[in-house]
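Worked example 2:
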Amino acid sequence: MDGTEVTADARVADPPTPASLHAEHYRDLVRMAALITDSRTAAEDIVQDAFAEVFARWSTIEPDRALHYLRRTVANGAKSALRRRRADRRRLYVPVPDVAPADDAALRAVGHQALLTAIGGLPARQREVLVLRYFSGLSIAETAAALGIRPSAVSTSAHRAMRTLAAFEEELR
């Protein structure tokens, strides 16, 4: 041996450069960020930002610690992206108070009109019994007294009227 040969133990690896770090570790860092964020696009942005930060601070970073710094920067960027995504989702979800639909008044008016039309089609006694009994809230005895009929006639008229209205409701469906 003439002294010019270098053994494997004596060989010292060259310190990494920004270009060599990018060439060797870009894909692994993107994969790491994508696994954390579940988004390839976000992962690529995070890794590019991390490399930009490392390159900007290259003079203050120990070259042997640069890969560690990159990994940590990517992990922190991915966690920040998840926090932003979570905050965005919270901002997007605004619980809406239970309110009537915008067309509720119109539908109610149509429903009322249909009900009034159906009630208008009833025989006079049934219509009178329904109005006094259910809309005015009178008892059977009070309705009978108001109409001058027996209480059993009030019950019969109310039953027949309700059966007719139920049939009308079935037709509407």
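The two ends are 103 Å apart (CA to CA). Residues 66-92 form the longest helix (27 residues).
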